[in-house]
Amino acid sequence: AKNERTFIMVKPDGVQRGVVGDVLHRFERRGYKLVALKMIQAPKVLLESHYAEHKGKKFYEPLLTYIGSGPVVAMVWEGLNIVSVGRKMLGATDPAKSEPGTIRGDYGIVTGRNIVHGSDSETSAQREIDLWFRPDEINQWPHTAEKWIYE
Ligand code: DAT
Ligand code: MG
To answer: Does the complex come out with an ipTM higher than 0.95?
Structure first.
């Protein structure tokens, strides 16, 4: 559906590397609709909830330290098949396995500094959007270019 949503986040390394604008540009120029955006240094409780599925793994604590080490740019994007297309635009979890032309494939080298996050399913997207944004932070606006993006 055209109103499918995903949660995309530029991680602290992405902010430091100056790729916030590029990440926005990639989703924007593709034709997706930005409906929420904020910069936030996430408290540990938020990160524990966001990464709950990884609790107990060896990279879990370093991951929370890394993501909590500085501000992130959190976004909600909307459009047809945005969850799966968004994951393709990000590239593989390990940047070494990401194709050039993807965000991680263009900017990353190691998994523990992979620049961006994107929801892995519609269920995860809903959970993550609810975790990071209040309902009143999600914007309703007419995307007037839509008639040129969809047939
Ligand atoms: P993704 O972010 O592609 O959904 P994931 O959910 O498996 O990947 O893992 C979440 C994040 O945790 C990932 O972006 C980077 C970190 N991570 C995952 N596996 C790792 C590993 N083997 N070593 C270091 N960091 C890892
Ligand atoms: Mg994941």
So the answer is: yes
- Nearest residue CA, atom 18 of ligand 1? 111
Q: Can you tell me the distance from the alpha carbon of 145 to that of 150, in angstroms, rounded to the nearest whole number?
A: 9
Those residues whose C-beta lies under 8 Å from the C-beta of residue 16, and which sit 6 or more positions away, are 70
Q: Whose CA is nearest to atom 13 of ligand 1?
A: 93
d(CA 7, CA 133): 10
User: What digits encode the pLDDT tens for the residues 58-83?
Assistant: 999 999 999 999 999 999 999 999 99
Q: Which ligand is nearest to the CA of 90?
A: 1
Residue 15 contacts by C-beta under 8 Å, 6 or more apart in sequence? 39, 70, 71, 72, 73
